[in-house]
Design a protein that fits this description.
The complex is a heterodimer of chains A (95) and B (302).
Chain A (H helix, E strand, L loop, with lengths): L5 E3 H8 L3 H9 L5 E4 L2 E5 L3 H13 L4 H25 L6
Antiparallel strand pairs in A: 1-3, 2-3
Chain B lengths: L5 H5 L7 H15 L8 H17 L2 H10 L6 H11 L30 H7 L15 E8 H5 L2 E7 L2 E7 L8 E4 L15 E8 L5 E3 L2 E9 H6 L1 E7 L2 E7 L8 E4 L16 E8 L6 H12 L2
Helix pairs in contact in B: 2-3
The chains are: A alpha+beta (95), B alpha+beta (302).
């Protein structure tokens, strides 16, 4: 395999044993970012953790694309709130 | 090592159909899946238990073996001996000796895919979700540093999976902050990239300062006479000592801001938060007769 930091959607589909349509759907819903160059569509390696997460949620838990979109949004909110809670928790009131 | 009631874990009856089991598993997994519960190790452990229960009950072979021996796993040797005497053909496929030996504790370790000792002793470990892999597995680690260490940019070496990793920690890192070291995780498959290493920092406060974002707060005792008459006071900051002017008639609890004497801002070299000093005026104790008389005299002046 060529030493690169991206792979075509076809290669990705083969490695993960998923349909290419799943990748395009995730891209359409703004959950991953596909790159279009000339005749091919690629997925950058840094998108792989996201892809794997959405694969688990979609195939293991049967969450559809709309659900994944909602989950993605809520997880961002959860992480933001967790950061705030951690910050507040570390502050001992002095006054 | 305790017996695990997998039916109870999934909340299904002993005669539950494969569909019921799948449904119960998915319902619980949607609630406890680690991807849906970031920063919640308890959910991760619960999910492992649910996953393990599903692994056994969704597999007809495993479920049969579990139903047969599960409750009486401690007596498996006797059962097996009796069975061998009855018929050599009745041995379980893949069964080798006592399947219930091994670990002493019912523990779940690590991330998804690990199984309890009970499971391992019965089914020989392994199993788990068969997701095709390409990229290597991510590794999550925790590293504790002190607030003093977090104040300066410094190098730190630690060992993960036998690999020594030396990283530069920029000043200003926050408690609970996670940094990603790309490609320091598990090896990829079929030419795939390595996974990433995620380090979550825990910051232990070894100082008298309270950190709120990039600002620091502290209480500093101030002598009564200095507060009344004014003067100078040396104050410790994380960057060294500073001399502050004390205005006459400084009140107890007065807060002063020392601009730029707080905590460094993460990845913004030379930029610091502020330090807030609150004066705590100390009243003298063990007054002498002369002092008492003088204070009495002062009180009559008011």
């Amino acid at each position: 395999m060529e030493n690169t930091d991206k792979l075509t959607v076809e290669q990705c589909s083969q490695h993960y044993n998923i349909a290419t349509s799943f990748l395009f759907d995730l891209d359409d819903h703004g959950l991953i970012v596909l790159m279009r160059e000339e005749q091919s569509t690629y997925l950058h390696y840094d998108q792989l953790p996201l892809l794997e997460k959405y694969m688990r949620l979609h195939f293991d838990l049967l969450i559809n694309m709309e659900g994944l979109e909602a989950v993605s949004h809520l997880l961002e909110r959860v992480q933001l709130l967790q950061t705030t809670i951690r910050r507040l928790g570390g502050e001992v009131p002095c006054y | 090592m305790d017996y695990i009631d997998y039916y109870k874990t999934l909340g299904v009856s002993k005669d539950a159909s494969p569909e019921d089991i799948k449904k119960a598993y998915r319902k619980l997994a949607r609630k406890h899946h680690p991807d849906l519960n970031p920063d919640n190790p308890e959910a991760g452990r619960t999910f492992q238990q649910i996953n393990e229960a599903h692994e056994v009950l969704s597999d007809p072979e495993k479920r049969k073996k579990y139903d047969q021996y599960g409750k009486d796993w401690k007596h498996a040797d006797q059962f097996e001996e009796a069975r061998r005497q009855q018929s050599a053909y009745e041995s379980q496929a893949g069964y080798e000796g006592n399947p219930f030996g091994g670990g002493q504790h019912y523990t779940y370790t690590g991330e998804g895919g690990d199984f309890s000792d009970f499971f391992s002793s019965m089914f020989g470990g392994g199993g788990g979700r068969k997701q095709s892999r390409f990229r290597g597995q991510d590794i999550h680690a925790k590293l504790e540093i002190t607030l003093t260490e977090a104040y300066t940019t410094h190098k730190q070496t630690f060992t993960i999976n036998g690999q020594n990793i030396r990283i530069t920690l920029p000043a200003g890192i926050e408690d609970g902050q996670e940094i990603k070291l790309a490609h320091y995780g598990g090896p990829g498959v079929n030419g795939g990239p390595k996974g990433d290493l995620y380090i979550t920092f825990g910051i232990k406060n070894d100082t008298n300062f309270t950190r709120k974002g990039n600002d620091l707060y502290c209480d500093v005792p101030l002598d009564l006479y200095k507060a009344l008459l004014g003067g100078e006071q040396i104050v410790d900051t994380l960057g060294g000592k500073v001399k502050l002017k004390i205005a006459p008639e400084t009140q107890n609890g007065l807060k002063v801001r020392l601009k730029g004497k707080g905590f460094p801002v993460y990845k913004q070299e030379g930029v610091f938060g502020d330090l807030y000093v609150t004066w705590q005026i100390r009243l003298p104790t063990h007054l002498s007769e002369k002092e008492k008389a003088l204070f009495q005299q002062l009180s009559e002046e008011r």
